[in-house]
Design goal:
Helices cover 57% and strands 14% of the residues. It is rod-shaped and about 155 Å long. It has 4 domains: 16-190, no CATH class; 214-302, Beta-Lactamase (2-Layer Sandwich), CATH 3.30.450.20; 306-378, Helix Hairpins (Orthogonal Bundle), CATH 1.10.287; 386-533, Histidine kinase-like ATPase, C-terminal domain (Heat Shock Protein 90), CATH 3.30.565. The two termini are 24 Å apart. The strands form 3 sheets. The chain has a 6-stranded antiparallel β-sheet. The chain is built from 15 helices and 14 strands. A hairpin with a 5-residue loop joins β12 (514-519) and β13 (525-530). Keywords: Kinase, Membrane, Phosphoprotein, Transferase, Transmembrane, Transmembrane helix. GO terms for molecular function: phosphorelay sensor kinase activity.
């Protein structure tokens, strides 16, 4: 599915081993062809015209040796040593010169086969060794002509042809050496670029997998070519075992794709995903290339997070305003509370009015608590998330929480797996859980007469993110109230401030976590906190 971006690039380059194997095929075929032509007398005036026996036996030995070297190279896995390569080329040089001598010397044209051998030496051998082989080839050709000149025909034409061939041999050797050096340099540069490209691909893969924005790419057949983990989580999509997925596996997205294809400039749609990481996701489309055949890139974002960011900007300015108002309220509130205390000390106060003073005192304390919560919101410190070993941390939290209360509490802790690790600011996590435990124990006590809650920690098998559930035995929350549960100042109690759950939600979001209310199968209330993955949080 991720083959668009993550396939390894081939490393192009100079491969002398493949060239050597190709050369072994060539000279084996050459020897076989010379034997075939000689036996069928195809060119009787050229091949073996002066010494047929020498030509035939040399060609046979040459072919057998070439076949043996071809089999060796075919079975070998690594490049042989320069000495082995030099030996193969030397056998070619000797055999070609013997067959050339048996066929009438350099003037019959067989000597020009030496140029191919020298060119192979220029490619397969390095530096001085290649030039040394070219010198041997030149000496061999000229020596055969000198032998023929002094002991046979005294023909000057063969000397001129040999000298010309010798010059060609050196030119070929130098040219192919230069081309080989350029080829090797180009291969090294291409290899370096391939390594750099592979490194960039590795970085792209890491960024793609760790980024919180979902990325999905599909082709013109609606086959999903690429889908990162965030997109899978947000769209509640899983890669099929067969390999590529299809937009049909995400019906809500497929419908929006059709609408976008009809009107590409339409407003970015919002999808309702019932079982994904977020209830709503916002998607944006972009064609990778112009035309109907191009792949399409889809950006998937948590719409809840976008909405929350906008709300946080509004609440930030509202918080500063509220904090200044809270300071102004405190002065008259303090005066009211002080006057109430003085009035309570009066001996002339009727007994019936004492109850009214108690109401004034209680409401002053409630307003003061609201002011404290508002100021706490405005002064909230930046979250510093770090890895938290939830198994041991929750055990310590429960023990500390019990010690902080001067009453017997029934708190049950279940860890569904060993070594559960999450990402959260420990101080802020303690603040969130303390608030949830306070609420849960209070509602359980009012409903059943027993202060009972259950903490459950585990790892979501689908999203692979750690979670904490706080379950109580309270009367539950109505569907109407559930919509406003995390809004500031919303409360169902006369004595509540309505900021506890709102503050818990804000702290969770600051740590890349989220909190939601759920109902258990038996009807109990459950607050579900999903923490950021310890190794994937950005």
């Amino acid at each position: 599915m991720d083959n668009l971006l993550l396939n390894p690039l081939p490393a192009p380059g100079h491969n002398p081993y493949q060239l050597l194997r190709a050369y072994s095929y060539y000279h084996t075929l050459l020897g076989s062809l010379l034997i075939l032509l000689f036996q069928n007398k195809v060119a009787p005036n050229v091949l073996g015209v002066e010494d047929p026996a020498l030509f035939f036996y040399t060609a046979c030995a040459y072919t057998v040796l070439n076949f043996a070297s071809m089999v060796y190279l075919w079975r070998a896995r690594d490049m042989p040593s320069p000495a082995f390569i030099f030996g193969i080329l030397l056998i070619d040089l000797i055999a070609i010169n013997l067959m050339m001598h048996a066929s009438g010397g350099v003037t019959n044209g067989l000597g020009y086969l030496t140029l191919i051998t020298v060119a192979a030496g220029g490619i397969l051998l390095t530096g001085e060794l290649a030039l040394s082989f070219a010198a041997l080839a030149c000496i061999a050709v000229i020596s055969e002509s000198l032998y023929r000149f002094f002991y046979d025909t005294l023909n000057h034409d063969s000397l001129f042809s040999a000298a010309s061939l010798g010059v060609l041999i050196f030119i070929i050797a130098i040219v192919f050496q230069h081309l080989t050096r350029k080829l090797v340099a180009s291969a090294e540069e291409a290899k370096s670029q391939a390594i750099q490209a592979a490194h960039i691909q590795k970085l792209a893969r890491l960024i793609l997998e760790r980024m919180r924005t979902g990325i999905l790419v599909f082709n013109r057949h609606n086959e999903i070519e690429l889908c990162n983990q965030s997109a899978m989580n947000l769209l509640s999509f899983r890669q099929p075992a067969s390999g590529k997925g299809d937009l049909k596996d995400i019906p809500a997205l497929e419908e929006k794709v059709k609408l976008w294809q009809q009107s590409p400039k339409a407003h970015s749609p919002v999808l309702k995903i019932n079982s994904g990481l977020s209830d709503e996701v916002k998607i944006n489309f972009a064609a990778l290339e112009p035309g109907d055949e191009a792949e399409t890139l889809v950006f998937v974002e948590d719409n809840r997070s976008i909405t929350q960011q906008a709300q946080q900007l509004k609440l930030a300015s509202l918080g500063r305003l509220t904090a200044s108002i809270a300071h102004e309220i405190r002065n008259p509130l303090g005066a009211i509370s002080h006057a109430s205390q003085l009035l309570g000390e009066s001996e002339a106060l009727p007994a019936g009015d004492q109850r009214l003073l108690e109401i004034i005192d209680a409401q002053c304390k409630r307003v003061n608590q609201i002011i404290e919560n508002v100021l706490q919101l405005s002064r909230r410190r930046t979250a510093q998330p770090r890895q938290v070993m939830l198994n041991s941390w929750l055990k310590d939290f429960v023990a500390d929480y019990r010690r902080s209360k001067n009453e017997p509490l029934d708190i049950v802790l279940h860890c569904l797996a060993p070594g559960i690790t999450g990402q959260f600011d420990p101080g802020q996590l303690q603040q969130v859980l303390t608030n949830l435990c306070d609420n849960g124990l209070r509602y359980s006590l009012s409903a059943t007469g027993k202060p009972h809650i259950m903490l459950v920690a585990g790892v979501d098998s689908k999203l692979q993110r750690p979670f904490i559930n706080v379950v109580d035995d309270g009367p539950g929350i109505s569907e109407e109230n559930e919509k406003h549960l995390f809004e500031p100042f919303f409360t169902t109690e006369n004595a509540g401030s309505g900021l506890g759950l709102y503050l818990s939600k804000e702290l969770c979001e600051a740590n890349q976590a989220f909190i939601q209310f759920r109902r258990t199968p038996d009807g109990s209330s459950c607050f579900h906190i999903q923490l950021a993955h310890a190794e994937r949080a950005l």
